[in-house]
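lol ok so funny story. i was supposed to be doing the assay writeup but got distracted and ended up predicting the structure for this chain instead. priorities right. anyway since i did it might as well share w the group, maybe its usefull for someone
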Amino acid sequence: MTKKEREISEAIVRAMVKQNSMTVGMPTTRTVAKSLGMKAPELYKKLRHEGVLTKNEYGYWFCERYNNKGLGRIRYFIYFDGDGEQCLKQYPVWTEKGVKMIKEMIQDVRCN
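and the output, tada:
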């Protein structure tokens, strides 16, 4: 890794640490799913089907329609794979407003 690449990588990590510090105490999708008697993969599938979240090779993102609506934030984590390569993943964490929306969405589906 060149000096420039290392500087860029370190800047990205600092930005992610700052972003993650703003998500402390916010429930994960797994926590929300558990409170609804569901498993996280089931809730992620539902949120993708409803157009709340989308997924790429790095993890989950808010879809355009729900981005910047105060429903949650994206939390990042870095890990090293079996080859020692640095990898990035992200997943949503939810505000009270986001949890309320999810619960209403699931309740509507269960009632119909």
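The chain is about 45% helix and 25% strand. Residues 15 and 111 are 42 Å apart (CA to CA).
back to the writeup now i swear
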